[in-house]
Amino acid sequence: MGVLRMVTVEPVRLLFTMALAMHSLASRDLVHRKVCLSRLNETMCGKGEGSPDLAGNTSYSRAIQEDVASFCFYLDICANLLGILVSSVFGSASDRFGRRGLLLLPSLGLILGSVSCLMQSYFLLLPLYYMFFSSALTGLFGFYQASYIATMSCICDITDHSDRSFRLGVMESMGLIGGPIGMVLVSPLLHTDYYAVVFFIVILSQVAVLAYVHYWLEETVDVRAFQDNSRDSGGVTSGQSPQSICSVVGWSLRRTLMIYVIWRTENRRQLLLINQTVGVLSSVGSSGEIDLTRLYTSKPPLSWAPFTLLAYLSVKDAVRGMILAVGMPLLYVHISHWSIRSDMILAMITLLSSSASLVLRAFASNTLMMMLVPLVGCLSGFPNTLISSIKCKLVDSNEFGAVFACTMLIQTICHLSGRALFQLLYTATLPIWPRLPFLVMGILLVTFLSIITYMWCLSGHLVKKDKMDARQQLINSYGGGEEETELSSSPKTTK
């Protein structure tokens, strides 16, 4: 029961990532069906990407797959750009006006997007560009960026330095495990063309999320205190007039864009900028991983079927998520004082696993070697969690939404740019060595070790402060109160 009392927004992240994976795969299969029907008859397009009739016609199959990949890429850009613009406003605003609204937005968007796709699955001859309407609906409600910002900020609100890495690790594992669950659920349904069932499950799961947030979760931000302070100081308020709404939007955007450059004590701004540099490079390095894996495995010497690729991606994320879900609690139990430098050391160690998995993929020439990649990279879920934990320990408690919003803004742009970059690199190196982009990504991750080592050297002065904070929390936890705090600090004042 003690574990259950700790559960807060973890189910929200699990159900949202599961539903998002189902929605993405069903939407891609729906696009494939619509593109195929525009070229061929319904008999050959009856089984989606796995149609044996379509696979037997190599020229048509290749042309259709290229059209589907290009169109899905544009749909992804539409949803991501709209999502990050909305999240940049609402993420920072959630520091003042509460997290629950931001938790509800992406689920509402996914429900509306699924309803739109559901209608298009019944009217397959509708023009293909109608799919942009579904993509825009999910983006206008924050897409996955809003869900990430809200859930991570909520965890940071209710934790301190000692247990934040542990709770963020569990949260990140929910996202990694939710995707494979959605892929497993959606595969048999898409094989039988049950689009309606898939989108209905997505809608039902997000309705459950809305009910859970509304009836169970408590607000983690003291909204009333902010409103009182704003009223006294004449600052930003949550009025209903157009002028006040524009004022809130402008204030929120400025706060998101400036969060990394404002002055901070004890070199925290410098450490925060270095931390975000690691995040940017990591996002660029991993941006084209799925696309490159799909391109490489679909051609000789592997020539995987779509179902095999789906199983591989599911296993890879599931292994990362389970190792993270088990590993973080074990580390939390055995490390007596979890400091910011502990995060850095663990990040350096686990980055080697991520880099080794990419290098192995660069030299994998058969299915057996590719299936070893998830085992070699089983620790690759740790670095992103630890980078996020370090980031939260460098900012104030009223800046979590803004810092995650700015992070998602930067990394989404880098992610989209990196996808285009690595696809161009794959095309350029195809006649020479098609696996070269994997090696480039692996080498890029190795460079993070030197950057994080530099951060570790700069953060030495923070260790003493963290220990003093932990000691003060220990004194307060034993009910000493203000009197014991004064007594503990009195020798220092007499020197």
From TrEMBL:
Membrane topology: Multi-pass membrane protein
Entry GO MF terms: transmembrane transporter activity
Record's subcellular location: Membrane
GO cellular component, one term: membrane
Keyword Metal-binding applies: no
Record keywords: Membrane, Transmembrane, Transmembrane helix
UniProt keyword Transit peptide present: no
Membrane-spanning intervals of the chain: 68-90, 102-123, 129-156, 168-188, 194-217, 310-333, 345-363, 369-388, 400-418, 438-458
Signal peptide, first to last residue: none
Major site of localization recorded for this protein: membrane
The name this protein goes by in its record: Proton-coupled folate transporter-like isoform X1
Species whose genome carries this gene: Acanthaster planci
Classification of source organism: Eukaryota, Metazoa, Echinodermata, Eleutherozoa, Asterozoa
